[in-house]
Amino acid sequence: MKIISSVNWVYVSVWATGAAQTIMVDHKGRQAVVGNYRKIRLAMMLLAFIGIGLSLYALYVEVMKESDAAYQAMCDISPSISCSKVFTSKYGRGFGIIGELLGDDHIMNQPNSIPGIIFYSLIIVLGETKSLKVAKVQRTVISLSNLMSAYLAYLLYFVLKDFCVVCVSTYIVNILLTTLAFMRVSALQRLSKIKTK
């Protein structure tokens, strides 16, 4: 009877120790995933704020150039490397589409920088929740923004034959945001799996 009790006690002790170790591993794993998630979210917020800054600067340059034709922006480096040339072209408002469809004076025909500010602000708002569904919506929105970036890059290189430092910087921001959006969804999926264990 004592031997059986002793064996049972050892079994329970080993089982309890094993369970404790499993919990510790899961806790450490969860901490690592949470830490990684926080870094991803912080990087996305930083990039979105950079995007807002670039968009605000683009809007400033356009407004200044429209009020003073002699205005020289910092991003106007040479005749072939000029952001104000791009911002003041017909493609600098309504993406060159709305003006053609609805007219240049239509209220929807705004500088491209305004939808940019709205877009990056939306990314910040969507990043404020740990919801996997919202993260997937954010990932989709950011991924679609790359289609617009590709369209604008095409116009920049083949139509306007110009290099715009601000424009290219926003394309890079969007590509980085896309990568991080996929990483964020993956981190949230791992977190949800850890919670269900």
Give structural notes.
The protein has 197 residues and is an all-alpha fold. 76% of the residues lie in helices and 0% in strands. Helix 1 runs antiparallel to helix 4, helix 1 (2-67) runs antiparallel to helix 6 (165-196) and helix 5 (132-159) runs antiparallel to helix 6 (165-196). The chain starts with a helix and ends with a helix.
Give the topology:
Blueprint: H1 2-67, H2 83-87, H3 98-102, H4 113-126, H5 132-159, H6 165-196
Could you list the spans in which at least 5 consecutive residues all have pLDDT below 50? 1-25
Major beta-sheet overview: none
Radius of gyration: 26 Å
> Helical amount among residues, as a percent range?
over 70%
**N-to-C SSE series?**
HHHHHH
Average per-residue pLDDT, rounded, comes to 87
Global morphology: elongated
List keywords for this structure.
6 helices; 197 residues; mainly alpha
